[in-house]
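Final report, closing paragraph on structural work. Over the funding period we assembled a curated collection of sequence-structure pairs, and we close with a single example.
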Amino acid sequence: MKKYLAEFIGTCVLVVFGCGSAVAANTLVQATGVNVPLALSTLLIAFAFGLSIVAMAYSIGNISGCHINPAVSFAMWISKKLDTKDFVSYVIAQCLGAIVGAALLVFMFGSNASLGTNGYGALSALHTEMGQAFVVEVVLTFTFVLAILGVTSKIENSAVSGLVIGLTLTLIHILGIPFTGTSVNPARSLGPALFAGGDALSQVWLFILAPLVGAAIAALVWKFIASPDTE
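Its predicted structure, as stored:
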């Protein structure tokens, strides 16, 4: 039960600080009327997500492994590093944590507008088309999950794994935010979309499916490249 609670807390924190930073940045821009370069706001939001992962990795990592992402748990399940019971329980805890995190944002900002939701088309800064958005999310998640599988494969990496994973997520967001807002995490997308509603909710299926596809590919690729060479 403790590890499920840890996943709940970790995902909640990720949504509050990651998505919350996106909402705060947009709110400040609207309130001041100052035009902030997209590159600057992208960098700030990217670091908010990355640092959230670092903070949680070194606080709950030794309890649950700090997946706080159904796509990561899915890859671990495929890799047989997580049994089916824990996989299902992790995903439930993560989704509930994301929903509570989004509810906290609604209370804190007094609005359900945006909430750092993901989207394509009119909801994308680059007006990314649906097919492009799907591929972007698959590639981003593949890269993120592959990094996680690699850095956690050796016990000697445990001291720096949280930092590596957090910086990788920052890197992922720097590229992905202009395209889709960057999901790579079905729970992180689901929670805010449920409260934002509208197009964000109607498009959330893509940000659930694409990260799972990317995670599955990463798990299979890692299994192949990490297996002993038989030649």
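The domain at 2-226 is CATH 1.20.1080.10 (Glycerol uptake facilitator protein). The two ends are 44 Å apart (CA to CA). We thank the funder for supporting this effort.
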